[in-house]
Amino acid sequence: MKKLLSLLLTGALTFGLLAGCGSTSGNAETPAGGETTPAESSAPAETGSNLEGTVLKVGATPAPHAEILEAVKDLLAEQGITLEIVEFNDYIIPNTAVESGELDANYFQHITYMNQFNVSDSTHLVSAAEIHYEPLGLYAAKTKSIEELADGAQIAVPNDTTNEARALLLLQQAGLITLKEGAGITATKSDIAENPKNLEIVELEASQIPSRLEDVDLAVINGNYAIDAGLKVADALAVESADGEAAQAYVNVLAVKEGNENDPAIQALAAALQSDTAKTFMEETYQGAVVPMF
């Protein structure tokens, strides 16, 4: 009888231990689904145990993207993730490297550029998270104000499809040109309907515009390259509004190859980039040049 009782107690104890292991395993799988409750997502010990030893290789342009990634490194380290930041100074290689698998993700581009790149280069990139918006600015160069702009003056704009359209919309916002009705975010130079000052629109690679300020009268510069060049959005002659269509069309995203967006490590990176730590860093460091979108 004592032997039977002992066996029963041993079996009950074993069942209880197995049930406990099953419960832990179930919770550990939650992040892979991409949806957790606040209580679950605030359990770094459990997440860290799943992601311990993970290395994430992420491409970024130096400012502000690489700087923002650097600011959230410790949040990922707490979960066992090593963030390796690879800096680029162009808009092409970071995308092709994600497509080929050389990078796990990139953080440098807005959603409209990414979608256009997928079409033009047959890539399969998707947004894993929307992070911030960088208002495009019109900056003084040889000419110091819009009012002083002479007939036939030269204005530099980015030469990639989406950012050139953005630049033309900003010039229209500043009252310098008028675009054909409906041109919107696909506008090109051929969509300029009115150009009263006969302005010459000079198309240049976005990264090269800050170094060419002495060659043109005014320049439309992307936020990250303006930051790199030491330009402040507060000094711009005109700035895109952070409200409305532009902010949505040009929100900067964490991009990954399609199928990887729900990977637990990618989701951890997305959460870090949308954290209070990231938000505070953006607001205090860039003072309006980088606007959090979360």
Q: What does the model show?
A:
The chain is an alpha/beta fold and 294 residues long. Helix content is 40%, strand content 21%. The chain has two domains: 41-135 and 249-292, 3-Layer(aba) Sandwich (D-Maltodextrin-Binding Protein, domain 2); 137-240, Periplasmic binding protein-like II (D-Maltodextrin-Binding Protein, domain 2, 3-Layer(aba) Sandwich), CATH 3.40.190. It is built from twelve helices and 13 strands. The strands form three sheets. The chain has a six-stranded mixed beta sheet, sandwiched between helices.
Please render the helix and strand layout as text:
Elements: H1 2-28, H2 38-41, H3 44-51, E1 54-60, H4 62-71, H5 73-77, E2 81-87, H6 93-100, E3 105-110, H7 111-121, E4 125-133, E5 137-140, E6 154-158, H8 161-173, E7 178-179, E8 192-194, E9 200-204, E10 218-221, H9 223-228, E11 238-239, H10 245-249, E12 251-257, H11 264-273, H12 276-286, E13 291-292
Parallel strand pairs: 1-2, 1-3, 6-9, 6-10
Antiparallel strand pairs: 3-12, 4-12, 4-13, 5-10, 5-11, 7-8
